[in-house]
Inverse folding.
């Protein structure tokens, strides 16, 4: 049915930057609203950023202007540029969409497998 695949995570020092990417497999024709979530050990998963197909964005308060979400609808790709990272940003980051259009029709609530981001102090 297709999948979302995140990449770009890693280990970075506080104040550094990372760029996460989320790419849809070829069987996915389009992605509707795209979201980035994160989950730190022992904590609930929380929304980081959202972007609609027309590029309207929304961010969690803790982002404080440090992250930028973008997308390329032609490539079915969503990116999250993270700057001025803090140790408290350490988490597994997940890509999510509320709806995909696949070769077999519509499907809902797709999640990637996650990518680890670790920020050292």
């Amino acid at each position: 049915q297709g999948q979302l695949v995140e990449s770009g995570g890693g280990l970075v020092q506080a104040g550094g930057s990372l760029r996460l990417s989320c790419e849809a497999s070829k069987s996915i024709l389009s992605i509707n609203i795209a979201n980035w979530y994160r989950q730190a050990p022992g904590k609930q998963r929380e929304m980081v950023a959202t972007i609609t197909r027309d590029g309207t964005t929304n961010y969690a308060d803790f982002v404080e202007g440090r992250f930028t979400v973008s997308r390329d609808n032609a490539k079915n790709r969503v990116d999250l540029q993270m700057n001025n990272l803090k140790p408290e940003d350490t988490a597994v980051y997940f890509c999510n969409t509320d709806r995909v259009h696949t070769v077999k029709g519509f499907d809902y609530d797709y999640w990637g497998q996650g990518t680890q981001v670790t920020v050292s102090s």
Summary: The longest strand covers residues 91-102. Residues 97 and 110 are 5 Å apart (CA to CA).
